[in-house]
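Take one record.
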Amino acid sequence: RMRSGIEPLCDRCLFPMALRQFGEPTALAMKAFKCGERDCTRAYNSSFGYFDIVKDRPLQQKHQQMCPEDGTPMYMDAISPERIETWRCAQIGCNQSAKFKHQAQGQE
């Protein structure tokens, strides 16, 4: 389960993300953090990791930063002026984090 209080950054445009609900209010609806940048389709939750929302449907991304402790997708928590990304696990009870040099979009 995803813990409360996380504040992911968009892994593409580095904008803060806000928690939203997607889909119809049925069993298929899901909550995810959505990028605040205009026209950005990126979202994050601890089940899918980072993905795109197109016509209210998730398009999952293959590459994710995975938590070495529990194997779930991590989120980008911060980026330093030196372009070092800090990634954290979103799961309740897990405090794993990792640092990576930022790669410009399209260099995956």
Notes: The chain has a mean pLDDT of 88. Residues 45 and 87 are 14 Å apart (CA to CA). The radius of gyration is 13 Å. The beta strands are 17-22, 30-35, 42-45, 49-54, 57-60, 75-79, 84-88, 97-101.
